[in-house]
Amino acid sequence: MNQPAFPTLPPNASIFTRVRLSLHALKVLSDDPANTYYGPLVNACLDSETYTKLARHWRTSEDGRRMLDDRPSLQGRELDLDALAKLPEGTLGRELVRYFRDNGIAPFETTFPIETDVDYLSKRYRETHDLFHVITGYGTDEHGEMLLQAFVLGNLGVRQAILILAYSVPRRVKVAGWKDLVPYLGRLRAAYRRGKRSRELLSVNYEKLWEQPVSSLSRLLCAPA
Predict the structure, then answer these.
(1) CA distance 151 to 139
(2) What is the per-residue burial (b if ≥16 Cβ within 10 Å, else e) of 166-183?
(3) What is the pLDDT of residue 202?
């Protein structure tokens, strides 16, 4: 029996098509937040132009072209967590495993088809999210997540970060009151500026850096907090 086909984002899709697919995907995600297909679809719909610009820029360099052609993956089925856990204390691989275990989560998996550079960058953005936490030092509580969103907005310009941050403001006011709003916005602004000053993190081939100390990578890739 054939499985129902998943909707896909056509090349050069109109804004109407992107909005329609995004709304459909968000409806699915409201009932199934961990869905491995529709999360990346929303990502591609909202930020396809951002990823198109990134892909165009990547293809101007040898390293960027190699990444787009080879399409290295950080999905769970590609990671040997047992091997990474045996690396020395403080290394990227060891700290990523610690991050997963401390937070009770598993590496990202998706069934989203990868047919174009934009598809790949959409997936790459989602699967590097946990590594970004490790490298930037931002926590996984709600405040840390918002700081990371502000950072990636400055670093990559992804539109979905704007929506997430906008949604966070009334929630923050509800929890902490109006007196905390100005300091909160100041912390978001600082994280945004840090992202702007940092190396573009999406194009880093993390698969080759597991044995490197996180402290060294953070100094190399990220502007000071």
Answers:
(1) 13
(2) eebeeebeeeeeeeeeee
(3) 96
8, part of any domain: no
User: Which residues lie below 8 Å from residue 89, measured CB to CB, with a gap of 6+?
Assistant: none
Neighbours of 163 (CB within 10 A): 12
Q: How many domains does the chain have?
A: 1
Q: What is the pLDDT of residue 149?
A: 94
3-class secondary structure, 11: coil
Band of pLDDT at residue 3, cut at 50, 70 and 90: very low
pLDDT tens-place string over residues 98-144: 999 999 999 988 877 888 998 899 889 989 999 999 999 999 999 99
Could you write out the DSSP letters of every residue in 43-104?
HHHHHHHHHHHHHHHHTTSHHHHHHHHH----SGGG--HHHHHTSPTTBHHHHHHHHHHHHT
Mean pLDDT of the chain: 90
Q: Residue 120 and residue 191: Cα distance in Å, rounded?
A: 26
SS3 223: coil
User: Is 10 contained in some domain?
Assistant: no
| Domain limits for position 179 | 15-221
Question: Is residue 7 domain-resident?
Answer: no
Mean pLDDT of 30-36: 70
Look at residue 122 and tell me if it is in a domain.
Answer: yes
- Of residues 162 and 61, more confidently modeled: 61
